[in-house]
Amino acid sequence: MIGVIxxxxxxxxxxxxxxxxxxxxxxxxxxxxxxxxxGSANIASYLAHQRGRNYTFYTExxxxxxxxxxxxxxKTKSYVxxxxxxxxxxxxxxxxxLDWQKIKENPAxxxxxxxxxxxxxxxxxxxxxxxxxxxxxxxxxxxxxxVDRPYKINGVPYxxxxxxxPVPYKRAMEDGCxxxxxxxxxxxxxRRIAKTDEKAAHLLSxxxxxxxxxxxxRGELYNRQVDEVIELEKQGKVLIVAPSDIGHMKxxxxxxxxxxxxxxxxxxxxxxIANFMAQQ
Length: 280
Hints:
By secondary structure, the protein is of the alpha/beta class. Helix content is 41%, strand content 14%.
């Protein structure tokens, strides 16, 4: 079984959108999909076969004040307007609805990674737990610590899945995948420095100590997981699709030119997927 993982990364997710649009254009069909943060939205549109949908979100809707910014913060107490993105825009009555019926009909399992703020442990939501116009798992997975208030599902607060399982290849393999295409949104040789997360970890620990610890150690976890999948790539079990360079782009960078360039890089780099999927 060949699966695809999209690790997301805020607006860097435009790279993954490019990769998955290439997959739709070239009939690259995966047996399984798991997404983290913005990667979960990318995977959802891929499984719904809505080519170009995420590109529209990254390059057009992103500039709206309800999407990201102070207006979203004042209205929802979160800097990223999750209810606007995965509600007002994505619901069946929205401006660009997610075709949930096609996701349901797609035989590929779909998992979304979020982090339980109480325990600091990853939670893997299955598409069977989601419903039309109830994309709570995606909202939880995309919920950035500190800049967003925790997203609650059945009273349980959640944060971005990237702080507890940023590259969920082990889960994918436990679910039956023997080969994986892993979409990173930073260069393969990038390694996260722990110091950059210290302030956010300190702020979060005051309310959610376990989640705060996740933020503090996320760099170490990410670095280790990338090293592990690089070893699996050498064995032919994994293909890593990652940009050679992202310039100065950060998670919430709103530079449309940079976002478009990253999307095109993803589309171009996805050419490597054809050979990988053809191998037995």
